[in-house]
């Protein structure tokens, strides 16, 4: 298997009118305070990025945090029915220029959630339609179990990312890499 760097939403060309400075680390001293004694940890880097002076490099811990959150965004579907993939896409939009790892995790989470929402929507619609013919009553327990599967899998993915730093959904990850 050949090793190649993936580009998930990154472009080789800088935006017009913006000079590319490149990634830079957050400047902080040992105590996280400036010379006046005020806590300034990371604020200068955030201000520089907001002003368009380049992107800030992400640390491993921050990458893992956002990757885990993108997988856990699927649990929003319990309350909203559809905002899980939207939240994962928002994470992808925000972090695609800063970390290809976070971008990959967020994009595969959004695609996985979208696929499961479609599968469950069709499954429940068929179950409800077949309930009028009395066959659907037999499908209700199966659909209830099938509804829990993606939440368990997304929880497992979040756990694996938090411990090992990487998780690939079986089919979705390959589809994203081959796009």
Walk me through the structure:
The chain has helices at residues 43-50, 60-72, 76-80, 83-95, 100-131, 136-164, 172-177. It is mainly α. The chain folds into 2 domains: 11-57, no CATH class; 58-177, no CATH class. Helix 2 runs parallel beside helix 5 (100-131). The longest helix is centred in the middle third of the chain and has 32 residues, at 100-131. Residues 17-32 and 36-42 have low confidence and may be disordered.
Concise account of the structure shown:
This protein is mostly helical.
Could you list some keywords that capture this structure?
179 residues; mainly alpha; 2 domains; elongated
Beginning-to-end CA distance, first to last residue: 17 Å
Helix/strand-derived class?
mainly alpha
In total, the number of domains comes to: 2
Helix fraction, binned, reads: 55-70%
Report the sheet-strand fraction.
under 5%
Low-pLDDT stretches:
17-32, 36-42
Order of helices and strands: HHHHHHH
Query: What would the principal axes of the Cα set say about the shape?
Result: elongated
- Number of β-strand runs: 0
What do the pLDDT scores average to? 78
**Measured on Cα atoms, how large is the radius of gyration?**
21 Å
| Discrete helix count | 7
Describe the secondary-structure layout.
Blueprint: H1 43-50, H2 60-72, H3 76-80, H4 83-95, H5 100-131, H6 136-164, H7 172-177
Helix pairs in contact: 2-4, 2-5, 2-6, 4-5, 5-6
